[in-house]
């Protein structure tokens, strides 16, 4: 939920002068950003806690930079994404959307740094009202979500993106705490629909025929909730007949995050998009809050005692 535009070697080295300016978009607050952090002050109290782990919203630009460093470590150092020169210099994954998003953090109080407890998990949250006031949703770079939003003008959308968890913390506890924080944020702000991109590793559609076809035949959104991949970037997901799909085998090929969304009740958009910078094939996730399985609302809800602040 994922990347900046891929830069080819020709574009990268064909223009040496002037040297590129590696501007940190989060270092210069946009109009009203300080007020935004002040408004968040009441929300940054713990959203949930499990043992030494705490989930909360970022309350400063320094918090956002720590989330960006985690993303860089996971996406570029642990993963196979191709970092831009600017990202390598800053050792952070960042883009212009960071300055207008809220950032959900999981921190571990058992492992502290001079800046506070270590950030071990993060999700980026973009509210519809904020997206409308700026450049729209990040997801709109790959999918025509504008038409989807227009069909549901009476509903409030929230975009989820840039999710990652540090390797030693990729377990049920951390993921549950992230989802508890998301649900608390959704309830507090009365959102009706969650959306964003989810990634399958790899950029070869033929190698991904089984998971893509499974999602197309068994998880595609009904027309009222469907959004199309941008025509110029669209990859057909219908690569195998429905009858030929071994559903259990297909499920085993899906990333845990995608399976988690499906268990919650999410739908998938029409068509996939290749993200060359991150080496992934992206699908659109659409999750109406009304479609969330009731047992998960009880499990992650703000009244869940094991996650209580």
Brief rundown of the structure:
One of its GO terms (biological process) is lipid metabolic process. The chain is α+β, with helices and mostly antiparallel strands.
How would you describe this protein?
This is L-ornithine N(alpha)-acyltransferase. One of its GO terms (biological process) is lipid metabolic process. This protein has 309 residues and is an alpha+beta fold. It has a single domain (9-307), classed as Aminopeptidase, CATH 3.40.630.30. Helices cover 33% and strands 22% of the residues. It contains eleven helices and ten strands. It has helices at 9-13, 33-40, 61-78, 85-90, 128-133, 145-151, 172-189, 209-219, 247-253, 256-264, 294-300, and strands at 48-50, 53-57, 102-113, 116-127, 157-165, 193-201, 234-235, 267-268, 272-275, 280-288. Strands 1, 2, 3, 4, 5, 6, 7, 8, 9 and 10 form a ten-stranded mixed beta sheet that branches. The longest helix is centred in the N-terminal third of the chain and has 18 residues, at 61-78. The protein is globular. Mean pLDDT is 86; it is low at 2-23 and 25-29.
Count up the domains.
1
CATH hierarchy class name: Alpha Beta
Helix content class: 25-40%
Class inferred from helices and paired strands: alpha+beta
What is the CA-atom radius of gyration, in angstroms?
Answer: 19 Å
Secondary structure tally: strands: 10
What is the chain-wise order of helices and strands?
HHEEHHEEHHEHEHEHHEEEH
Identify the quaternary structure here: single chain
**Envelope shape:** globular
Number of helices: 11
Which fold name is given in CATH as the topology? Aminopeptidase
Mean pLDDT across the residues is 86
What is the CA–CA distance across the termini?
28 Å
Low-confidence stretches: 2-23, 25-29
Tell me the CATH superfamily.
Answer: Gcn5-related N-acetyltransferase (GNAT)
Report strand %. Answer: 15-25%
């Amino acid at each position: 939920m994922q990347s900046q535009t891929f830069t080819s070697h020709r574009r990268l080295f064909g223009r040496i002068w002037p040297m590129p300016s590696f501007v940190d978009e989060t270092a210069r607050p946009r109009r009203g950003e300080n007020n935004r952090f002040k408004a968040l002050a009441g929300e940054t109290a713990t959203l949930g806690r499990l043992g030494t782990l705490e989930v909360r919203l970022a309350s400063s630009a320094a918090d956002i930079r720590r989330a960006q460093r985690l993303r860089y470590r996971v996406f570029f150092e642990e993963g196979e994404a191709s970092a831009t020169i600017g990202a390598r210099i800053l050792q952070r994954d960042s883009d212009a959307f960071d300055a207008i998003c809220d950032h959900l953090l999981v921190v571990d109080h058992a492992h502290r740094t001079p800046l506070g407890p270590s950030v071990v998990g993060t999700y980026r949250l973009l509210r519809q009202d904020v997206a409308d006031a700026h450049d729209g949703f990040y997801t709109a770079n790959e999918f025509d979500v504008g038409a989807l939003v227009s069909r549901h003008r009476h509903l409030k959308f929230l975009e989820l993106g840039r999710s990652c968890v540090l390797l030693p913390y990729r377990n049920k506890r951390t993921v549950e705490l992230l989802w508890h924080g998301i649900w608390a944020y959704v309830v507090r702000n009365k959102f009706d629909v969650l959306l964003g991109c989810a990634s399958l590793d790899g950029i070869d559609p033929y190698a991904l025929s089984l998971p893509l076809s499974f999602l197309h035949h068994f998880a595609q959104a009904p027309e009222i909730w469907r959004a199309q991949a941008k025509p110029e970037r669209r990859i057909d997901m219908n690569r195998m007949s429905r009858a030929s799909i071994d559903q259990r085998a297909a499920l085993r090929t899906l990333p845990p995050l995608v399976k988690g969304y499906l268990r919650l009740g999410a739908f998938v958009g029409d068509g996939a998009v290749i993200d060359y910078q991150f080496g992934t094939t992206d699908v659109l996730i659409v999750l109406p809050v009304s479609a969330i399985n009731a047992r998960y609302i009880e499990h992650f809800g703000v009244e869940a005692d094991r996650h209580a602040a």
